[in-house]
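Example record

The entry below shows one chain as it appears in the dataset: sequence first, then structure tokens.
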Amino acid sequence: MRRAFVKCALALGAAGLMCLAACKPTEANYRAAYEKAVAGRSDEADSTIYTKIRREFVPGTLTYDGRTFPTGSQFVSTTEGGGGVSESIKRYCVVAGQFKQIFNAKSMRERMADNGYPGAFVVQTREPYYFVVAGSSHDIEPAVELFDLLQADTTLRLREPAPFILLPSQIK
């Protein structure tokens, strides 16, 4: 009886190992699962309010003095504790950074204020999405000068698409 039990256990063990070896994940299995997941995605996210607000951002360009500058247009407002007031938002806002979290935007604004940009402030979209504005002006010339200053500043680590000129849609 004991001998039959041992044979049975060995047979089950061998069958179990073969089963485990057969179920081993492969790159082909992962690829098939990934493709199935991608095919099953829906455009459900497009129906959210945030997607509508993101689409309100209108990228473009502005030509001044023979040069072309990247721009974006969207409704923005000042952020509480972001260093600015409603009057800070003028026709041309030079953006040094954009963030999804207010903490990161405020941290960049503080670093900028410490490094020679005392007029830096944070604005937000309705999503909210946060832009760190190095400075703002009613005329294009000071905005272009600030844009060039930001590009030349090696103390700042700007990430694409910054710098760019934000044209607040509520200001015409």
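Notes for this example: Residues 2-39 form one domain. The chain is about 40% helix and 25% strand.
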